[in-house]
Known about the structure:
The chain is of the alpha/beta class. The protein has helices spanning 6-21, 37-48, 65-72, 81-84, 88-98, 113-120, 131-142; strands spanning 24-33, 53-59, 76-80, 103-108, 124-127, 148-150, 166-167.
Amino acid sequence: MICMDKAEETMLVEIIRLIQLGVAMTKVEILVAVEPAPLLRVIEHLFQRQSEYRIVARRRGGSALARQASHLRPELIIANMRLLGPGAAKIIPEVKHASPRSKLIVTGFPQGFGTHARKLGADAYLDEEHLVRRLVPTAQKLLGKQQLHPKKGAARIPRHTSTSTYTAPTTSPISARPGKGHHLC
């Protein structure tokens, strides 16, 4: 016999409902475009420790970043000023135009480019001095702290859902609504 409180029961009911709808849940996909290589490894390490994120691509060179963002449509893009280089003022708006739903975090030096980066379309700017401490919380804030996201066009997954990646079946005869006052205990 399994005992659940009301919150757990509600969560289970919602998951079953989403399974019946055939919602495919995936991890948050991240495109990382940073230089130098040790910084890339640090970012990979930070997100490997977070089960709800998956790095789908790593770039070295900013020239084709907008094209890759358009192709992949990741939920999160992390790019740094070293990679974007002097063309940052052009590349940032191109990336946001190519993948408008993606959240873009630009990292760099603490010399005041943050305001300019946000005006160009970046959703956040982090100086690299504080990157390790602030990157994951900033990503969570930008993404609404949702751990899992449905594929395009599907219903939203509740924030408290903490299941691993799976594709839900499209048909199920199971009734997802226990009767009023019914507890699974």
